[in-house]
Amino acid sequence: xxxxxxxxxxxxxxxxxxxxxxxxxxxxxxxxxxxxxxxxxxxxxxxxxxxxxxxxxxxxxxxxxxxxxxxxxxxxxxxxxxxxxxxxxxxxxxxxxxxxxxxxxxxxxxxxxxxxxxxxxxxxxxxxxxxxxxxxxxxxxxxxxxxxxxxxxxxxxxxxxxxxxxxxxxxxxxxxxxxxxxxxxxxxxxxxxxxxxxxxxxxxxxxxxxxxxxxxxxxxxxxxxxxxxxxxxxxxxxxxxxxxxxxxxxxxxxxxxxxxxxxxxxxxxxxxxxxx
Length: 276
Fold this sequence. Notes:
Blueprint: E1 4-7, E2 14-17, H1 26-39, E3 41-44, H2 51-59, E4 81-84, E5 115-124, E6 132-136, H3 137-142, H4 146-152, E7 156-159, H5 170-176, E8 180-183, E9 185-187, E10 194-196, E11 203-206, H6 211-225, E12 231-234, E13 241-245, E14 249-253, E15 264-271
């Protein structure tokens, strides 16, 4: 049975069924990657992937990108970061410090060539909750008045590891922590669509603005453009491999689950281009 690609929501995204990525043909891979570049989020259902198999599948989408959460990389497959909520430390109030941003962001803007795709594979899920939200920042940018779009185009953001992240070694902090400059509005190299591109927690400042003004700008834009018309909330199913295009979407984690159950996800990144 050929793979079937169906819409996930009115905003964007596709569900892919009827394909085993371990044995997918070149024609099927071309169809999947083309859908990903256009629809920005793909949920590929019913995958059974050991770590080495996930890495092999990921390489069919491009070169693997580094990750700076050094302490969480799998020993048997060092390109994969394992996110296990059961291992999360708790703060002084007993609240777990879960891995994954609860705020809208794009991944690893501290890299000169940030990842174009992030892949997240569901190994074990909680009884309920633990969804992932996605925001179409191409639609978000397109919703702005043209005069405001023109003011934003050309802005440059300075990005880095502004404080030592949990689970990051001193070596990787030095290796990946230096500030990188990216366009605040980036153009997708395949579709040509423009999107708002930023990780607020890695944003040092936007050129011509103070750090405070820079944060106010991105948070104001998010508040005005991220809504029911631009978002999709993914309810995970066992065996889901979700792939999203950081060049066009932001995402966030929802922490509405019992972390002690052990929500286990395997994350792998695909290297992108220098943003333009």
